[in-house]
Write a structure and sequence with these properties.
single chain; 6-stranded antiparallel beta sheet; Arc Repressor Mutant, subunit A; alpha+beta
């Protein structure tokens, strides 16, 4: 079921099985995706790591995730773009820069409690009905339903990953930092450059992450660069030189030293190893 608005708004609801599982890999510009697993049969390789998903788990993905399908069971998928949802004035936790998409340092996986499964089933049913209600209020209603879904998921994710102890202002800064990395990691590799974008000093940023017991800012930046390097080496036919240039390195030796220090393998050896699978 597909909705397309007059201003390029995009929302798609799909029931996925082995017969149409390639739809999981489709990409749209500025796309964000929720994947709800209805059984224990799905194994997905996301950014080079295999995940065996359990029944009633939900994972959130952005357009930047690399995806390979090893096996699929029954899945429900919602995919939307920024024009559909992100232009609205949402609270930071459920915005497109929020916790589910750019606010977490690891892949967000939410397990639905038994008491909430019926709630999500009913919400999905209302989504389907509204997708068929073609009138001037359809867009607004679909946006409201999506926001409700994201609020429910954000609440569950916060409870499951214990974000309750963090100061809201601190979490907002972490989300903003992660979002800026996502936008600029190919051209900006230093903490100072991101601190300038946030009107803070590098020391202030470092102290913030230290208080939260999180990785250091430079670790976040380098991890994102490495993630992209692995994706390009694994999922594309680009040469080492092309990969290095795409993520902001003007010469291969500098990129190769950085990659080997982080991965334990040279880019060439890594590409050969992943090609075997």
């Amino acid at each position: 079921m597909l909705f397309k608005g007059k201003s390029k708004e995009y929302l798609k609801l799909t029931d996925i099985s082995s017969s149409n599982c390639e739809e999981l890999k489709e990409r749209i510009e500025s796309g964000l995706t929720l994947v709800w697993f209805l059984d224990d049969e799905s194994i997905l390789d996301i950014d080079g790591r295999a995940f065996n998903f359990e029944k009633n788990q939900i994972v959130t993905l952005t357009e930047f995730h690399g995806l390979k399908i090893k096996s699929t069971g029954e899945i429900k998928m919602i995919r939307f773009n920024r024009q559909f949802f992100c232009i609205l004035n949402h609270d930071s936790d459920v915005s497109c820069k929020g916790l589910l998409f750019f606010g977490a340092s690891t892949l967000p996986i939410i397990s639905l409690p038994k008491d909430d499964i019926r709630k999500f089933q009913m919400l999905w049913s209302v989504f389907e009905m509204e997708m068929e209600s073609v009138d001037e209020l359809q867009l607004e209603m679909l946006q409201m339903l999506l926001k409700r879904l994201l609020i429910l998921l954000t609440r569950l994710y916060k409870m499951q990953d214990d974000f309750s102890e963090a100061n809201p202002n601190q979490m907002e800064q972490v989300r903003e930092f992660n979002y800026l990395i996502e936008k600029h990691f190919k051209t900006k590799h230093s903490v100072a450059e991101y601190a300038e974008l946030m009107f803070k000093s590098p020391k202030t940023l470092s102290n913030l992450f230290s208080k939260l017991g999180a990785k250091t800012p430079i670790q976040y930046i380098q991890d994102r660069i490495m993630l992209e390097a692995r994706r390009l080496l694994t999922y594309t036919d680009k040469s080492i030189k092309e990969v290095a240039y795409e993520i902001g390195y003007e010469d291969i030796p500098t990129f190769s030293r950085f990659f080997k220090k982080k991965e334990g393998l040279s880019p060439t050896d890594f590409k050969e190893k992943t090609a075997e699978f």
